[in-house]
Model the fold of this input.
Amino acid sequence: MIVGSAVWGSPALAVTAMVMCTVALFLVSTVVFRPRRKAIPLERRRPNGHPELSVFSRVTESTVSAVDGAIGSSGGLYSPAALYNAGLKTKPADFTVLVLVAALLLGIVGTLIANLLLGILFAVLTPLLAKMLLSVLTDKRRSKFDAQLTDTIQMLIGGLRVGHSMMRSIDAASKEADAPTSEELARIVNETRIGKDSHEAIEEAAARMRSEDFKWVAQAIQINREVGGDLAGVLEEVAGTIRERSEIKGQIKSLSAEGKMSAYVLMALPVGVAVAFAFINPGYLNIFVEDIRGIGMLIGSLLMFALGGFWLSRIVKVRF
Done:
């Protein structure tokens, strides 16, 4: 027991064991469970035939099907709308299985490094971290959409100037723009083709992207539909206003850069100190994972860490 605790108490040996387990799982999945017969070439397959799946692939498909039946159409914690807004082109069941596998692996790693309680803590925090990842990806996608909006409006104005209708201009812009603008404009066109009102489709896109500037574009299009007039000229005025707002946003971003850097340093400092102590004196922090009081202190510090990070993010974020 003393030898075993000494082996797992060493961070280097624990990391080596984790790497060896990962390599072993990879070899088992690629060598042991691979198909015994070679796949039939595509040109020799029957029209209605299906390629032979390995045991690992069949287990994966059955697991995804079971999770899909359990979470239903809502998607559980990870809805289709949340995955779409984050730019992930995957099904909720596939993403849920990926998160569950990650939670299992992190739980095993936490158990091997310290004890069962830390492994359970890692496994419980994994879905929350996945949710935070989706939120970060969604914010990045929306910021990219806002950055591309001025060029998008210019493409719409160009299409209107040459005589295209509004929807035809949106269709042309969806083929020339970069993601995520191209994806959102293509969705507007597709929804309009199946019967949805164009103004409603544009409003929903603005709501998905949480873009007040694009909502102005939707309002300008709706007003033009009701009273008529030069839509290209109106969009030029809207583009000028959006350009001025973008300049103000850039100034605010530069002024708040120091506060953001201070927040990053304050958030990274306790983590860096803990990692340094773990390498300098490996047994110094064992009380936080072996004693119930230390575990309580660790959970409380994580909660205060999250609360402080949220508070700092609200301080440096300016709305106007």
Notes: The chain has 14 helices and no strands. Residues 69 and 93 are 9 Å apart (CA to CA).
